[in-house]
Design goal:
The chain has 416 residues and is mainly alpha-helical. The chain is built from twelve helices and nine strands. Helix 1 packs across helix 12, helix 4 packs parallel to helix 6 and helix 5 crosses helix 6. The longest helix is centred in the N-terminal third of the chain and has 38 residues. Bound molecules: 1-deoxynojirimycin (2 copies). One 1-deoxynojirimycin binds next to loops.
Length: 416
């Protein structure tokens, strides 16, 4: 009895020590992620405002400005500058806006559906999976939110005409993207992983959101005709999204035209990314049971295919999709961090500690594979857990910061 009691005490203090250690590591990693993320904005040899996907220039060469990665990364800056005004961040946001206006002027192979550009802002015309229509939708969505914030703060619309202007053909940043998205969403395009051409849940989710929130901004700025058009298109996209509900979960791609053909499960962690990237006003709620089911199926599959999930840690390391072969097919850091963020959002909604705890288990997984210098690559080797593929992936660092933001919000809501 006494022994049992003693070992209980030891166990409790051990797990407490581990939790403390996790907190300490998270604080350190968050600071490192900010530093490393900022380093990837307009680095040497790039035009001001460029966001490189990673400084790595070979095997793989990620020294490009991807419109999707840049939008997600800049949303982290924009959200943060809205919470705490910061002149340095504001300047970087302005640089990104100017750079994006420059990109929109380039002649490209697929208009604004072009996924990536050279770091000097010229178009990339080599072979690639294009168009990727989530890109202009994401860029528009986060800039719409930022413009709404500036208007709320009393900035005059006449100072924001480079962002939105009631004029056709459109020459302002947001309106150009919205016009493109509103007129092309029914066409087949490549998915966010740049591999499959078809209709995609992720792309349509961010498309719907950009049109919906874009319509609100257009209306606010007196562009009524456009507002009606965007808003009507957003309803049509929402209807289309219903087709992706199958067997009680969401599927990722329909009507495949070309590209990777072996995604038999049609399960993909980008289902979750879609929910996270559109936020609380999305077409479906974060607590959606079909998302719960999708996540269960994904975890089962990733536990089967990744040997590192078969030992030790509680939380599953998640990849893009079970059949993935890119760099051998591995768990990804940003998708595992997305799972943490998901749990933290559920914790906020329900006030339940269990979700917070599960979120922390994913964070322990990230900590377990972490490097002492705070570097985050794109993937972990499925056997050894070592970082592989592009190093210092900007999007990985952005994902760490957003997971932490949701964790802090969760801590305020959870009943202990
Ligand atoms: C590069 C893409 O960025 C990546 O997502 C894809 O898996 C590989 N090409 C293989 O097609
Ligand atoms: C490959 C990923 O599949 C894609 O989503 C990303 O945009 C690029 N790498 C750049 O990070």
């Amino acid at each position: 009895m006494k022994n049992l009691f003693l070992s209980l005490i030891v166990m409790m203090s051990l797990s407490h020590a581990f939790a403390q250690n996790l907190e300490q590591w998270m604080t350190k990693q968050e600071a490192a992620s900010w530093e490393k993320l900022l380093k990837n904005l307009s680095p040497a040899d790039t035009k001001k405002g460029a966001v490189i996907a990673s400084p790595q220039r070979k095997d793989p060469d990620y020294f490009f400005h991807w419109v999707r990665d840049a939008a997600l990364v800049m949303d982290v800056l924009m959200t943060s500058s809205r919470e705490t005004p910061n002149q340095n961040l504001n300047q970087k946001i302005e640089d990104y806006i100017q750079f994006s206006l420059y990109l929109q002027e380039q002649a490209t192979l697929t208009d604004l559906g072009e996924p990536k550009y050279h770091v000097d802002g010229t178009s990339f015309n080599g072979p690639w999976g294009r168009p990727q229509n989530d890109s202009p939708a994401l860029r528009a969505l986060y800039l719409v939110r930022h413009t709404q914030f500036l208007l709320d703060r009393g900035v005059s619309a006449s100072k924001l005409t480079h962002l939105y202007r009631n004029e056709l053909p459109a020459r302002s940043l947001i309106k150009r993207d919205l016009e493109y998205v509103a007129h092309h969403w029914t066409e087949a395009g490549f998915d966010l992983w740049e591999e499959v051409k078809g209709a995609h849940f992720y792309t349509l989710m961010v498309t719907r959101q950009s049109l919906l929130e874009g319509a609100e901004l257009a209306r606010r700025l007196g562009d009524t005709g456009a507002a009606d058009h965007y808003s009507w298109q957003s309803v049509l996209v929402e209807n289309r999204l219903q087709d992706f509900i199958q067997d009680g979960h969401f599927v990722t791609t329909l009507d495949r035209v070309e590209g990777v053909h072996y995604k038999d499960s049609n399960l993909d962690t980008c289902i979750l990314l879609a929910f996270l990237h559109v936020g609380n006003k999305g077409a479906f709620k974060i607590s959606d049971v079909r998302l719960v089911r999708s996540m269960q199926l994904l975890e089962e599959a990733f536990n089967r295919v990744y040997p590192l999930n078969q030992r030790g840690l509680k939380a599953t390391a998640l990849g893009r999709y079970p059949e993935d072969t890119y760099y051998g097919g591995n768990p990804w850091i940003l998708t595992t961090l997305a799972a943490a963020e998901y749990e933290y959002r559920l914790a906020q909604q329900t006030g339940k500690f269990a979700f917070l705890k599960k979120g922390d288990e994913y964070m322990e997984r990230v900590q377990f594979h972490a490097r002492a210098d705070g570097a985050l690559a794109e993937q972990w080797d499925r056997n050894s857990g070592y970082h592989v593929s592009a190093d210092e992936l900007t999007w990985s660092h952005a994902s760490f910061i957003t997971a932490m933001r949701e964790r802090k919000a969760a801590l305020k809501k959870v009943r202990h």
